[in-house]
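pasting for the record
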Amino acid sequence: MLNILKEKNNLPVYSVFDKEFSLYGRVLTGFDITDIMEAGERIPMPESGSRYEPSTPVFEALPIAKEFAEKIFGELETQTGCCWGHSNFLNAMEWHNSSEVNVAITDLVVIFGLRQDMDENDCVDSSKFVAFYVPKGTVVEMYATTLHYCPCEASAEGFCMVVVLPKGTNTPLEGGKTHRTSCDKNKWLLAHQDNAELVAQGFWPGVTGENYEIKY
């Protein structure tokens, strides 16, 4: 799969097990993810488009949710949600002022950038981005300095990824936007300038360059 992705795409594609991933996050080991994998595999795929739930009760009832909170987030109150469906394009970049833990329920690809590459106008060119293949059953931590967005599918069957974040992240702001990149609680977003839907919604068109499509 990784070789196919490298051959078919015009941005660098690595595995999260490659040393290049160390700039963006780390692979987590030692967690028994059997139950959360089984629960994730039961989630039906939409026919088109992607879905996101900040908090998914079936995941949060599992012991692994508490274990992530204790061992990765230092006993902060967390939420365990899910992002799943169909997606092929970069489209935007977001970030949080906290790490994010992901469990790949399916094979998937995530395009990453670095907040340090944003300029004084809150813009970043997509030529600075790289893609990472995340094999099914892999647990990763993405650092707070990592720009990311909705995963891309690695097959026509779609993608599914568990998302663990501090509680309240990605839920609506109560006091309104405080910056042009503000999106939700603990979430800031740069729309790709070619993503007419997000730009029309008022999101800052801070991603320039090619709106990469992941091909497999």
